[in-house]
Every structure is written in C-alpha cells, then in structure tokens.
Design a protein that fits this description.
There is one protein chain. It contains ten helices and twelve strands. The strands form two sheets. Strands 5-8-7-6-11-9-12-10 form an eight-stranded parallel β-sheet, with helices on both faces. A four-stranded mixed β-sheet has the order 1-4-2-3, sandwiched between helices. Helix 3 links the parallel strand 2 and strand 3. Helix 6 packs parallel to helix 7 and helix 6 runs parallel beside helix 10.
C-alpha cells in the first residue's frame, strides 16, 4: 500500500467549493444524574440518543480523562462500565457536583454508543472546540520563541489524524487546517491520540496566500515533505520556527502549495518499502526538529 504522502504533487484542486455551514445550536437540555446503582438498574437496556452535532462523542479512557483534566466544563454526559467506577471516581464526583448526567451501562451499550469495540469502558459526549484563527495562534506564541506546526494538506483518515495528534502533542506542535478542509476531531481520532488531542492547538488557516504571508512574517519557514527529490531531513539545518506541510493520503501535496514552500525535505531510507505512512513520517519529521540542537 502506498503511503499517504508518497506520490508527490497531485493535480490542482478545482476552484470554489462552499464551506460547510455551521450547525444551529440546539437549546439546552436538562441534565440527568444518577448513582451508578440507579443508572444500572434504570437503563432498561436502551441505548441513549446520539450526541448533538455541536457535541463530540469521545471514547477511550485516556481521551475522556484528558478532557476532564483540561476542560471539564465541556463534558455533557458520561457512560461507563461498572468496572470503570473506581478509576473514574474523580470524574463522577465532578459530574454529581455540577449536575452532569452519567450512567452505568453494559459493554454492548458502550460498543453501540462508540460504534467501536475499543471504548475501554467509557464514552463521553463533550462540547466541540473551534479551531483558532491563525492570527490568534501566532499572537499566543512567545516573541522569538521556537515553534513548530504541521500544515495538513488534505489528510483525511481519522486514525492517521489521531496518530499525528499524538505525535504533535509529544513534540509540542500545532496543527494547521486549510480553510476548506473538512478534517475535524472524531471519536476514533481522539482515541488513537490517547489524550493528545486535548494538548494540540488546532488552527484554521486563511487562504493560502494570506497564510503563507502571515507565517513568514512571524518568522516561520515552510518545508514541503516529499518521498523523493527533497533534501535529506537528517542532513538539513532546521530553523527555530518551522511548518512541515504534509500531503494527502494517496494524492500527495497540492503542487502549487509545494512550489510555494521554502524547501523540500525527504526522509532517506533503504528503499525496501516505497514510503512511510503519513503518521509515521510525521513523527520522524517532528523528532528531527526537536533534535536539531
């Protein structure tokens, strides 16, 4: 299987394409709260209704606990297996105090809620976060401090996105999303990120020309990541402020964007495989910047 970023520039995208309209927020619902015993007895085997569109359904212990640590006010409802009560006691106590509903349910209900067998005994509906505008993120950086970001040019697989978020959290990188990108955090991506999704700034870019101008004005260089034909990543001198541009799965990078970058970088290897997966490649690129000395 070819890697997500291994085919070089893809044909230019057609112009246009209206962005999605924002969903209209629903009215507030009255929270329900139950003790684990009451919830287990009263569930009646019925799966609760799906989360509203402005909410995100998370699953996996690390993903849910990361939200609880960083933005507990975003939690709207929690579903858990009885076996998870001891480890989630602080979360459940917070739910009681703030009148946020939680329910103990059977494993099969959790699997239905998560649409996955990898729920790890807990599912939560949480408020979605909105990506920061680029200028707001740039303004949050300490003047002159090193900074690292990933420009995801068409990456769409949620498992790749989750793995990228995990690596970005580990190395302290932000994730930049093009204006027309529909990529958004999902339950699957958050689980693969193992809590990293809550630590990574998601930034919405303006149109390409304006984004390039703003990033360069803030001291960033942009590096197009390619499988072949770029300078060796391991021999390159990397700047304190850098944006790696990662191409789409299977299609590669927009040729106009690649041409607009300041440099092209490749990961040298044995040639035994055609390329690395985009998530694996991202981890290598991030680690090399962190080790630049």
């Amino acid at each position: 299987m070819t890697g997500p970023w291994d085919r070089g520039p893809r044909p230019p995208r057609p112009p246009g394409g209206a962005p999605r309209s924002r969903p209209t927020p629903a009215g507030p619902r009255a929270p329900r709260r139950a003790t684990p015993e009451q919830a287990a007895a009263g569930s009646g085997g019925q799966a609760p209704r799906p989360a509203r569109r402005e909410e995100l359904r998370l699953y996996g212990l690390n993903a849910v606990e990361a939200v609880f640590r960083r933005r507990p006010e975003a939690i709207r409802k929690v579903y858990l297996a009885e076996a998870r009560i001891p480890v989630l006691k602080p979360l459940l106590a917070w739910c009681v105090k703030h009148r946020v509903g939680y329910r103990v349910v059977a494993d099969e209900d959790l699997e239905r809620l998560a649409a996955s067998a990898h729920h790890e005994g807990v599912v939560a509906d949480v408020q979605r976060t909105t990506p920061l505008p680029l200028q707001d993120w740039l303004a949050s950086l300490a003047p002159g401090a090193p900074a690292l970001a990933l420009w995801l040019d068409g990456v769409g697989n949620p498992h790749n996105f989750g793995a990228i978020l995990r690596s970005a959290a580990h190395f302290g990188a932000a994730v930049l999303l093009p204006p027309a990108s529909e990529l958004a955090l999902s339950g699957a991506a958050a689980r693969v990120a193992e809590g990293g999704a809550e630590a990574v700034p998601l930034v919405r870019l303006p149109q390409t020309g304006a984004a390039l101008e703003a990033l360069r004005a803030a001291g960033f260089q942009l590096a197009a990541t390619v499988v072949r034909g770029g300078d060796s990543l391991f021999a390159a001198e990397l700047p304190p402020r850098l944006v790696y541009v990662m191409g789409a799965e299977g299609e590669g990078m927009d040729p106009a964007l690649a041409a607009a970058c300041d440099r092209r970088l490749s990961i040298p290897g044995t040639g035994a495989v055609e390329s690395l997966n985009v998530a694996a490649a991202t981890a290598v690129f991030l680690a090399r910047w962190a080790a630049r000395g």
